[in-house]
Amino acid sequence: MSPRKSVVEAAATRTRIIERALTLGSVDGLEGLTIGHLATDLGMSKAGVIGHFGTKEALQLAVVDEAVERFRLRVPGHALGARPGIERLTRAFEEWIDYMTGDEEHRGCFLTSVAMEYDERPGPIRDAILTALSRWSDYVTAELNEAVKAGELPHNTDVPQLTFELGGIALAVQQAILLTRDPTAATRGRQAIHRLLDHTNTHGGD
Fold first, then answer.
1. Which residues in 147-181 are b (16+ Cβ under 10 Å) and which e?
2. How far is the C-alpha of 113 from the C-alpha of 59, rounded, in Å?
3. What number is the average pLDDT over the span 13-20?
4. What is the mean pLDDT of the chain?
5. I want to staple 153 with a disulfide (CB 3.0 to 4.6 A). Which of 92, 109, 114, 147 is the partner?
C-alpha cells in the first residue's frame, strides 16, 4: 500500500468513526459514548478506534468540531442569501428548527444537548461548546444590530434581551422535540420567532 493511499484510507476511517460517534452521541450523550460500543458498532477493535485520536476526550472534541461545522453549514450557511437583519435572522432560526426536526438519528440539536450535559463540567469540551455558542450569540446580535441600523427594529431595542429570548425559543423547541415528542414543536417555534420579531418591529416604538 502506498503512503498516500494509507493516509487517504486513515482519513476516511477517522471520518467514519466521527460520523458514527455523532449519531451514537445524539442518543447516549457525549459522555455516554464509549470506545467499546463504538468499536463494536463499526466492526473495529478498540485500539483501532482510539488509535485515530489518542484519547477518548480527543475523540469527543472531534465529534463536537464536526457538530459545529454541520450547524454552521446548515443554519447560518443556508441563510446567507437572505437580506441582512430580520429576514436573515428569521431564516437562520427557521433553518435551526428544521435542523432539529431532521431524521430520527439526529433529532434535536446536538450542540444544545451537549451544552446541557457539560454545563457544570469544566474542561476542553465545555470550552469548545462555549466558544461555539458564543459565536452563534454574536451572529444573532450582529443581525439584530443590523436590523436596528436599517430601521427594521426601534433604535432603543434591547438587543441582548432579544438575543436571550430568541435563544429561549430554540431551547423550548429542543425540549418539545426530544422530551415530549410534541409534533407541533417546529410549527410553534416558527410562530414564536415570527411573533417576537414582528411584535418588536411593529410595537417596539422609538
1. bbeeebbbeebebeebbeebbebbeebbebbbeee
2. 17
3. 94
4. 90
5. 147
